[in-house]
Amino acid sequence: MVNFTVNLATALQIARTFGARAGYLRLDYELQRSSGLMSRRMASASGWDRWDLKHIASGISPADFLSVRRQGSRPFFFGESRRLAVGLKQILGARGEESLLAEANRILEGNLPFFGRLSFACSFPPKWFENPATGQRISPNRPWTKMRFASDDYGDFKFILEPSRFLFVYPLARAYAISGDERFAKAFWTAIEDWAAQSPPMSGPLWICGQESSLRILAWSFALYAFLDSPATTPERAALLLSMIAAHAWRTLQTVSYARSQRSNHLFSEAVGLFTAGTLYPELNDAALFQGWGARFLREAVLDQITPEGAYLQDSFNYQRMVVDLLLWTLRLAELYGVELDREIRARTVAAFEFLARFIDSDSGHAPNHGSNDGSYLFPLSACDYDDYRPLLRLGGCVLNRPTALADGPWDEAGIWFDSSGISASEFGAAPGFCRQTANAERESVSCESFSCGSVRESENNSTGYHRIGAKRSWALIRAGRYTRRPFQADQMHVDLWWHGLNVARDAGTYLYNGPVPWNNGLTGTAVHNTVMVDGRDQMRRAGRFLWLDWAQASGRSFSAKGAGYPDSFEGEHNGYRRLGVNHRRSVHCVSEDAWVVVDDLRVDDLEGNGEHELRLHWLLPDLPFTVIENSPFCAALSAEKARIRWNIFSSSPGRAAVIRGRKNLAGESARSGEELLGWESPTYGELCPAISILYRVHAPVPVRMVTVILADEQLTVRESEGQLVLSRDASPIFQVSLSK
To answer: What Å distances lie between residue 654 and 108, 209, 620, CA to CA?
Structure first.
């Protein structure tokens, strides 16, 4: 159990971690909440009468507002949604069409999507104030200014907020486009009216977060245009929606100091929400204000959180997908309305898109479950799984005018929705995924090979902290970063390994931010990552659910040892155990597509002493049939669909192995106290699944060397000979490494 008690020295370190500017912004926000100033400001804007069109859009009638959009004077990404039916059906196919309609019907029956992969029975309209995972409820009259995101009486508030993101409107809109079934349009408007009736402006729990308010603006705007020509879309309903959007934009602007202090995806969401309200709805009296602040905050977020190389400084691939989606939405909207954004916004969008694309597996379309994963998937506009990043590749290729070599597939759909012409890619006679020509953008062609490995050459001075080595279908991500701002996980030297679309060695994910111990963001620690833990301690000192101190700093280089056209080797180290007198160095070698060697050296730190230490090497594997072949040295086989993958672990000092699934022992010694997190993974927020944890413990004085050899070909063998580990194919040596310290 982690003790989050904070002493004065720690408090000062926390202040230095966040910095003076962010600290001031957060202090300003908290003072407004605690003093009652925020509550009084919210009360001044309560009641829907305050947001009637005569107050927020002078001289505009409900009929006028709807009419100009139906006439095309206020365009959106797509034209009339029903005109997309032919292209959508071509992409979906008969089975995909049937599956989409079934999903939309399940929503009408009250089964709503949660966090990309899950579903809960919530009724329809949803029970907005109920936690479907626990049955707990929160009073709709509870002031949000006195709430936090977790409480004993309502549980993890994310489960209550999720239906109010209105992500269910995307499958309803898709189903309406291919079927014309008016039930889907009526369902959207029923949900809007019910939400407005139960959650008056600024007063209840659903108004707690500017980010949530902004994401609603996006979903509502998409749905308005998707159902624009439906008889269910009446002037009165459209006027109500405009009132709700104006109220949400105003609400977002009141607490944007919190988002700015977080220096996270919150600021991206809120900036895009404001920009959308100001750009799509120029009738609003405050449209210029919303658009201007949105553009300003977006520039701030881009320059602060995305490096010129494209790395996202929240260190999360799921959040990077979310941020890139938001940026693509904004760039497309700005293009439609002729709004000139700062050029750096597009430049860093391109960089972030291409950076993330390099870590998308070419076989599966999945990316490592790296960093925080709270289930955010803002634009579910395809039949692809939540874990599939190919819709982003296709969408980015369309909006950024950077065609990819992806084959045609269900991931093509998002590009159609974001293209105002509504014409499928194939009708342009261009490469798949190239949706349109952009007259004012420089056209650059990016091949799928460059996404996979070809463009990532030798990187002696990799400043991003992310290394990709290996071939196209057999590759690894190694994390070795130098932090300049607060880290979110203690995962230095973590290795994610992919083989023919299978994530062989994987990240455990997130599960819950606000669960009971140890599930209060517990999967961020060193113990569950594929690296070495010393004396049962994290690489950094945990000071809260989202806060690490005494940052472990790492350095590393990836290079081609065999003269290949891509990096096949990595070498690096981190100083997270300097306080214990231990230095951890790791090298990773892609010997061939079917053979990987990972060498861990635990040595005496130059500045400290010696002594015995407990060293624990951990690997997290998929939940597949697993057989231990030998205990000394450790050898076990994972039975995958395409191969039997053998794990071999050797060490210079005697070690003991254990295999754990869902905290239960499969081989060797059982999990110890404090190891409740082992043998689990979380594919998305709120979802916990068994996985296979391999532990290898060595209790000895350092230096100690541990070597892991992973083989996916029965013709490959490894043996120890005179202090050398020799890897052979058909009895012919192809690689060797010393086992000495």
So the answer is: 60, 53, 22
3-state secondary structure of 558: strand
Please give the backbone phi and psi of residue 586, each rounded to the nearest 5 degrees, phi first: -135, 140
CATH code where residue 480 lies: 2.70.98.70
Where residue 31 falls among pLDDT bands split at 50, 70, 90? confident
Give the total number of structural domains in the chain. Answer: 2
Report yes or no on 468 lying in a domain. yes
Q: What is the dihedral of CA 143, 149, 155, 159, to 10 degrees?
A: 100
What digits encode the pLDDT tens for the residues 546-583? 899 999 999 999 999 887 788 999 999 999 999 999 99
Rounded distance, CA 13 to CA 547, Å?
A: 11
The whole-angstrom separation of Cα 588 and Cα 600 is 9
Task: Count the alpha carbons within 13 Å of 526 in the hemisphere toward its beta carbon.
Answer: 24
Other Cβ atoms less than 10 A from the Cβ of 678: the count is 24
Count H helices and E strands in the chain, helices first.
19, 28
pLDDT tens, residue by residue, 497-515 = 999 999 999 999 999 998 8
Is residue 620 within 8 Å of residue 508, measured between CB atoms? yes
What tokens appear for 729 in the block?
């194919």
Q: Is the pLDDT of residue 438 over 60?
A: no
Q: Is 600 among the domain residues?
A: yes
Q: Identify the helix (H) or strand (E) that includes residue 604.
A: strand 595-604
Q: What's the rounded Cα separation, in Å, for the pair 277 and 221?
A: 9
d(Cα 446, Cα 449) in Å, to the nearest integer?
Answer: 8
* Token pair of 440 as six digits: 């004012």
Residue 341 is given by DSSP the state: -
pLDDT surpassing 90 at residue 279: yes
Q: How far apart are CA 587 and CA 556, in angstroms?
A: 9
Domain region containing 646? 463-509+525-655+686-712
* pLDDT reported for residue 446: 43
Classify residue 594: in a domain, yes or no.
Answer: yes
DSSP helix/strand/coil, 694: strand
Question: CA angle at residue 565 from 560 to 569, to 5 degrees?
Answer: 25
> Is residue 621 a part of any domain in this protein?
yes
Which of 5-19, 192-206, 643-657, 694-708 bottoms out in mean pLDDT, i.e. has the lowest? 5-19
Could you tell me which residue, 452 or 714, shows the higher pLDDT?
714
**Model pLDDT for residues 144-181, shown as the tens digit of each residue:** 988 877 788 888 999 999 999 999 999 999 999 999 99
Rounded CA separation 392/239 (Å): 33
Closest CA to 679 of 603, 613, 626: 626
Quick check: 691 and 680 in contact, CB under 8 A? yes
Tokens 């998308």, located at residue: 360
Q: Is the model's pLDDT at 2 over the cut of 70?
A: no
**Rounded CA separation 283/374 (Å):** 35
The Cα–Cα gap between 699 and 420 comes to: 63
pLDDT at 597 (0 to 100): 98
Continuous segment of H or E residues that includes residue 732: strand 732-738
On the question of a cis peptide bond just before residue 633, with omega within 30 degrees of 0, the verdict is yes
d(CA 508, CA 690): 10
Q: How many residues does the chain have?
A: 741
pLDDT at residue 374 is higher than 70: yes
What pLDDT was estimated at residue 494? Answer: 98
Q: Please tell me the distance from the alpha carbon of residue 718 to that of residue 646, in angstroms, as a whole number.
A: 10
